[in-house]
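Section: protein folds

Sequence with per-residue tokens
===
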Amino acid sequence: MKLDVIKHGRLYITISTTVIVAGLIAMVLSFQQLGSPLRLGIDFTGGSNITLGLACNAGNCGKPIDVAVIRQAVESKGFSNSVIQLVEGKDLKGISVRTSHLSSEQRVKLKETMTESLKQYGEVDPKKSQIDEVGPAIGQQALNNGLLALGLSFAGIGVYLAFRFQLDYATFAIVALFHDIFVTAGVFAILGLTMGVEIDSLFIVSMLTICGFSVNDTVVIYDRIRENVKIDTDTTSFNDLVNASVNQTLWRSINTTLTATLPLIAIFLFGGATLRFFSLALIVGFLSGAYSSIFNASILLAWWRSRQVTVRQPPLEAN
């Protein structure tokens, strides 16, 4: 398989633009309906947190707790979209359930449901149990910290690429990163509107992971472009060098993306509710990252370099 990315460049850019615009429209609709571009989970909006610990005798805490059993019991009582996690430590084993803000009656109902579902694993120890309320201010701080981390990663990547390559290389690599972020966020904005999917702190983690994966793929292609430019600049145009570089690294990019995506598909299918949408975000981001590295980053760089050459050519003198 041999691609001519420059010849069909407008098509590839149009595909990316269409996907991003669809995501932006979904974000606008989400903002109008929900007050935020994406449907925020309780990690960012705050909520109630109930933790129940089991009584352990001499370090023996009984058989392992099946989170699926607890989730089924909790959701059967109407507490959907709850975050359920195991709590384990020295002489400690229990379950933690985070959900939206609950009334006093709802908290009692949820605690009774959790206690009943934990009976098969042991007796609940009141000294190891607690109920907390997390306010929206703490959730907003977590969201702001996540966005700050994302912004710092973009800045660090941009500075690194500017030193390793040149400023225009770094600029279009950052553009490709924005592409991947907007595509992933757009998909989750659509899922939030159509299926009620919420984002949590793991979504920020997935965004940071996507940035690292995507820029790694872009660096591989840019490295090959730089090497080919050093070898042959007199007889071959920059567009042809970009085409050759993309094709030389194409299967490496495809294989890397496949080997990273296949385990994520398995996690999405069999990893449980907690990791399902985290893995989905990585799948979307990795596929988008491969696309933007192969097509967007290389095409934009070639177009820019071709424009620079055209601008620098002196006008023809009149006879």
Summary: Residues 273-312 form the longest helix (40 residues). The radius of gyration is 25 Å. The mean pLDDT is 85.
